[in-house]
Amino acid sequence: MKKLSLFITLLFSVLTLMAQQHQMSKSYIVPDDTLVREKLGQWKNLKFGLFMHWGTYSQWGVVESWSICPEDEGWTQRRGPYGATYNGYVKTYENLQTTFNPTQFNPEKWVKAAKYAGMKYVVFTTKHHDGFCMFDTKQTDYKITSSKTPFSSNPRSNVAKEIFNAFRKENFMIGAYFSKPDWHSENYWWPYFPPKDRNVNYDPAKYPERWQKFKDYTYNQIQELMTGYGKVDILWLDGGWVRPKSTIDNDVDWQKSIPYDQDIDMPKIAAMGRTNQPGLIVVDRTVTGQYENYTTPEQTVPDKPLDHPWESCITMGNSWSYVPGDHYKSADQIISLLVKIVSRGGNLLMNIGPGPDGDWDPVAYDRLKQIGNWMQINGEGIYNSTSIAPYSEGNIYYTKSDKGNTVYAFVLADKDAVTLPGQLQFHLTGIGKAKKVSLLGINHKLKWNNGADGLAVNIPTELQTKNGLSQAAVFKIQY
Ligand code: GLC
After folding, report:
1. How far apart are CA 356 and CA 317, in angstroms?
2. Does one domain contain both 130 and 211?
3. Global pTM?
4. Does 238 sit in the ligand 1 pocket, CB within 6 Å?
5. What kind and span of H or E run contains 51?
6. Could you tell me if 401 and 259 lie in one domain?
């Protein structure tokens, strides 16, 4: 009996230890470079960024890259008449290079709209998984500046550079999205074998020279981006299956199926990046550790604050890439996402996919305009804020200003116009007595009571409806 209980205790401790280690391996690592920590601190205050997925695929209005991936998933389906055979499809897909001519390209127009909406940083797909480069790389001819691409004759054909310059001029932080996997490279999908899935199609351990060439190619391309494109703040690396085998998390389904070690030498890439771009934030997505300086929940909002820097990337339409007639989220929905995310201490990176002509759907401009109108009044509760308990209650979300004793309470409306009850209870118990309470955008004295369980604010009848407020009413509470 004694033996049994000893055994159980022992087993229990081992299991606990395993669980802890597991947690540890999953946990965030604070970068030891001071400049990186400083930049992360600045980035966290920006709250709202613009993401853009743009490539030759935009001409077909199909999913970015994935239709050439030989996996049978909902998002990898091939389209239309070219879809009959895999090889025929890929050939036609790669030929999209020869018709890509986005003559309406005018990044200043994007900057203006994004700036008005209150966006403060941009992340752009310099290269997606299909390997087509939206920058003037010297490593391949599969690029927008190749003479095969009609747009190459345009003086602004190096679109990544043009986009970065235009946004930087308006003080946006600059982020380069770069796909580690490259489905065009003969050293990733070696033509000797057919591609099998999203992964490298040969065993790097068996063909180390070929893998080395791929590593060099990747390094050289990132070096080009880190040296020839002005100040870059974020290196946003996608394609988390390109990773050392030791980092695979077997609790994550898609990671379990990674067949090979695909170590791309992140220490070397990050060191080079930071030599050229001091303080560079590296986002090696899903590869928990030194090179994932913030995490990137995709199309979701964590339901509570996280203990490390994070950013939800979310599409404004349904798709990352341009799809004609895509259904765009309403301004209410976007503002509500932003408020929820910021109340939990995160950033929102909102994606818009430029079309084949080089411009956005007019609906995207309309949304940014409405968001901007709201931000003009309420942005002070968004930027430079942190989360504060109880974070949210019902449709009320809180943020706390970085400077001074101010808390903001966002009362979200489920439609355009905001209606308010006769009294609102804010269960903010950690802040002491409120000294002043006001409603942003409205010049009207408010009455409130400081109670043991927080604050009760009375809303005068004339402010309950027809108050002229849209999407969310924001109370500023100074204490
Ligand atoms: C998804 C898509 C990928 C896209 C990414 C952006 O993983 O599959 O194509 O680039 O989201 O976060």
Report:
1. 16
2. yes
3. 0.94
4. yes
5. strand 48-52
6. no
Residue 233's domain comprises: 2-381
The protein residue whose alpha carbon is closest to atom 8 in ligand 1 is: 66
| CA of 55 relative to ligand 1 center, distance in Å | 13
In this structure, the residue with its CA closest to atom 1 of ligand 1 is 298
Domain boundary among 381, 415, 441: 381
User: Which residues are within 8 A (CB) of 137 and not within 5 positions of it... i.e. 6 or more apart?
Assistant: 127, 143, 221, 224
Between the CA of 36 and the centroid of ligand 1 the distance, in Å, is 25
Asked whether residue 342 falls in the same domain as residue 442, the answer is no
In the reported structure, the alpha carbon of residue 349 is separated from the centroid of ligand 1 by a whole-number distance in angstroms of: 13
Residues 411 and 371 in one domain: no
320 lines ligand 1 (CB under 6 A): yes
Domain tally for the chain? 2
Q: Which of 356, 381, 406 is the last residue of a domain?
A: 381
Could you tell me if the CB of 177 is within 6 A of ligand 1?
Answer: no
Residue 8 Cα to ligand 1 midpoint, Å, equals 45
Residues of the chain above pLDDT 70, percent: 95
pLDDT in tens, 123-164: 999 999 999 999 999 999 999 999 999 999 999 999 999 999
At 137, which CATH number? 3.20.20.80
Distance, CA 433 to ligand 1 centroid (Å)? Answer: 46
Residue position matching structure tokens 């899903």:
286
For residues 100 and 215, membership in a common domain is answered with yes
Amino acid 304: pLDDT: 95
